[in-house]
Amino acid sequence: MFAQTSFRCVLISAALLLTSPILAQVHRLDWTSGYNAHDLKFLNPLLANRTMVQLGESIHLTDEFPRVRLSLVRYLHEELGFDVLALEGSPVDAWLAQDHLYRAHQPISQKAREAQRLAWFGIWQTQAMGEVMKYVATTQAQSRRPLYLTSFDSQPGSSSAFHDGLRSLSAFFQAVQAYAPPPDSGAFERWRNAFQPYFSNCYRTTVSSTEEQRKEMDRSLAELSTWLRLASARVQPSIHGRALLAVIASLHGSFDLCAVAPARPFGAQTYQRERDRENALTALSIQHNVSASGKVILWAHHSHVNHDSLGTSVPSMGRSLLEVMGPKLYTIGLFAASGEALSADDDDELALKHLRTDFEIEDALKRLANFDYFLDLASPDLPDMFGRPSNGRYDTIGGRSYVLDRDFSGAILIQKVHAPVFASTP
């Protein structure tokens, strides 16, 4: 449906500028043209001094949202020097995917397809997300400054290739072994046994790990961390070695998340609160320890990247990052006025949903223009409702309250979205 993987920005005509002051800040997105860096230069004053840019989405499963963000990723990488792209999932799985991109002797399209399977959830095995991975793979071969793929998340084994944390770790151990031998012949089995209680849906159980299990996990994690730091110095390219440090941070987050699970009521909100706290720590570790430029792109759902200005919902990763980074952080939200998307039900079966059109935020954005566009939310003359709590879309299942100009730095409105096409069965 959309052969191009990028959009073109066209400034609106002088006649339109006269109709409303806010229209001077609206940048039209033209889907019919290919990627052109010149067309996105309006981003320069907005992002030039930022070192972390979050690219959100109100809906996980659309065809359009990944394609829009791919153009932003290209601009951030090629023009502004951002060198790391981190998504939801796990640095363990993402490291394996990136290692495959380096080591596999296959055409780029084949390498990218396998890396997509290794790195990302089943719901992200779409053609649109495949274009994102293909761009990452292309930069490894053709760019003097490749874009490195990783994850800020704490869910090892969540990718389509594994569906299990221990399987993911076993593959990870074998891959790292190519760069540095393990400390002894029994290390991998010892580590797997020690970690097993923390990879068995721990956040859903009511049974705490024993003190002895915790001590064994701590000992094994310390051994594993020492090995990964040793391997880090031997892995090439150096950014791939430094990414092992993000794996260490992520595993600490995973085990901490499981350790608190049985100690308190652990419903969905508690899980996301603890997960996003660890996500923010790993994102900062990636920025300081992995990226050569210190400039990182984060890609996630609005539930993770919003700034949580109201303080009434789950404290988000975006809120924690804003507290640490202040004006160095820029968060872009993607909103859809109408259309269709896929949604997973309780059995993880995907169903086509017609999007509701009664959300205040999307309605207000739609009133500004009848085309797809980007809007900086620090612009003057914004509608009053952008500065007060308003209901916005939360995937296809309902709504959530945001203060738009405080919870996001910029907004993209896509007038109509469509369900994605899968590259394979999710």
Q: Can you put this structure into words, describing what you see?
A:
With 426 residues, the chain is an alpha/beta fold. It folds into two domains: 8-82 and 299-417, EreA/ChaN-like  fold; 91-112 and 120-130 and 141-294, no CATH class. 43% of the residues lie in helices and 16% in strands. The chain is built from 15 helices and twelve strands. The chain has helices at 14-17, 44-47, 64-80, 91-103, 108-119, 127-142, 165-177, 187-195, 211-232, 238-260, 268-290, 302-305, 317-325, 360-368, 404-407; strands at 8-11, 26-30, 52-55, 84-87, 148-151, 296-299, 329-344, 350-354, 373-376, 390-394, 398-402, 410-417. Strands 1, 2, 3, 4, 5, 6, 7, 8, 9 and 12 form a ten-stranded mixed beta sheet that branches. A hairpin with a 5-residue loop joins β7 (329-344) and β8. It is globular, with a radius of gyration of 21 Å. The model is unreliable at 1-19 (pLDDT under 50).
What are its keywords?
disordered N terminus; single chain; alpha/beta; 426 residues; 2 domains; ten-stranded mixed sheet; EreA/ChaN-like  fold; globular
Write a short abstract of this structure.
The chain has 15 helices and 12 strands.
